Each structure stands twice: as C-alpha cells, then as structure tokens.
C-alpha cells in the first residue's frame, strides 16, 4: 500500500490564518487555512552578494485542535516550520474541474532561528463520554468570585485557572457529602453546594 511521505517546509506566513467550519459524518470540527511562502537564496559570484530566488507559495490547511491553536498563535509575517504532507484538492466536473496542491499540516511552530516564542500547554479534560481540550479563551479567562463563593470554603481566586477551579469544586462537594453522611444537616449542605455557581465548571469544546 502506497503512503504519502511527510515533508517539513520552512517559510513565512503570507496571510492571517482563517478559521472555517468542517462538516463530516462524525459532526462539526474546525479548519484553518493560510498561505505559506518559501524562498531560497544563492550566492551570486558575479555580484559578490546573496540573491533570493522567486518565492514558492502554497496554501496550508489544518484541522481540529491544531486549527484552533494556529488561529490563536500564528500571524501574517511569522516565520514558521510546517510538518505535513502534500495533497491535491479537486472540485468541479468536466471542463469546470479544478485542482490545487495543498500542504496538509500535522504539526506547526514558530521558527526560532528568526525570533522568540512563548509556549502554553493545553489542559486536557476527560469525562465518561468525551475527551476534550480547553479552548484558548478558557485557558486565559480569569475565574470570577462572589461573596457567596468566598463563604463556601472553596479557595478560588482571580488567578485560578478553570481546570484547577473544577478540581477544587469537586473536592469541596465531596467533603460536603461526607459531612452530610456523618450527621450534619443535609439541606444545609445542599444549599452550600448550590451556592457555588456554574461559573467554575470547565466547559470544553468536544473533539
């Protein structure tokens, strides 16, 4: 069985990445596209200087979590390294049939030869039915607090990330259930648990 070889392409981002919806039998996901320009330089002995060859331009497509991360991290003009494979997209029929060579990215990052970058690891959440990642907005958004939450005994501050807030909430509700079993007022425990808003529940976009 023939396989498509992977390639690594170094270049600069020619257009700001754009997100688009991808529909399939398994549901809806995200896609992202931008144009990547790559050029090579050569030494011209006659002029005794480096000269650039014409740039090669390719559209880059990526999907899922990678698409969301690219849209939140990559900008026009950035130097990047893209790992993926080349694929020909075709559409139309008969005389109106068109084709386009596309670099389908499987991983991507800034080229640190030309600049610096800051890395933020995505936090993975999992329950009985889904495995998902927190979005960039969820990772960077602070968790708000109110007087009722402060009195609940959950030690959550403005700097608490959403996933840590969820863990603290789980610990708190578990301790309240144990106390209720030990003879405390069950109604009071339920009221205290309900005072913790859904603000602390971590929502994640399903893969």
From TrEMBL:
Keyword tags: DNA-binding
Superkingdom field: Bacteria
UniProt GO molecular function: single-stranded DNA binding
A GO cellular-component term linked to this record: nucleoid
Gene3D superfamilies on file: Nucleic acid-binding proteins (2.40.50.140)
Pfam assignment, any one: SSB
Transmembrane segments: none
InterPro entries for the chain: NA-bd_OB-fold (IPR012340), Primosome_PriB/ssb (IPR000424), ssDNA-bd (IPR011344)
UniProt region (Disordered), positions on chain: 177-198
GO BP field: DNA replication
Entry keyword Oxidoreductase: no
PANTHER family for this protein: PRIMOSOMAL REPLICATION PROTEIN N, SINGLE-STRANDED DNA-BINDING PROTEIN
Protein name per its UniProtKB record: Single-stranded DNA-binding protein
């Amino acid at each position: 069985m023939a396989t498509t070889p992977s390639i690594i392409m170094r270049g600069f981002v020619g257009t700001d990445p754009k997100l688009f919806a991808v529909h399939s039998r398994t549901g809806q996901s995200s896609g992202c596209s931008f144009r990547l320009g790559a050029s090579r330089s050569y030494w011209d002995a006659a002029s005794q200087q480096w000269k650039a060859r014409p740039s090669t331009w390719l559209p880059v497509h990526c999907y899922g979590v990678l698409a969301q991360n690219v849209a939140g991290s990559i900008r026009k003009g950035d130097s990047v390294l893209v790992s993926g494979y080349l694929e020909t997209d075709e559409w139309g029929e008969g005389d109106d049939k068109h084709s386009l060579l596309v670099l389908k990215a499987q991983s991507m990052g800034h080229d640190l030869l030309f600049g610096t970058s800051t890395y933020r690891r995505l936090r993975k959440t999992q329950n009985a039915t889904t495995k998902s990642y927190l979005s960039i907005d969820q990772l960077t958004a602070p968790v708000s607090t109110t007087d009722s939450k402060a009195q609940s005994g959950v030690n959550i501050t403005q700097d608490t990330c959403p996933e840590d807030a969820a863990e603290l909430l789980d610990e708190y509700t578990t301790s309240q259930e144990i106390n209720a079993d030990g003879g405390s007022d069950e109604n009071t425990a339920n009221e205290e648990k309900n005072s913790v808003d859904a603000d602390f529940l971590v929502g994640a976009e399903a893969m």
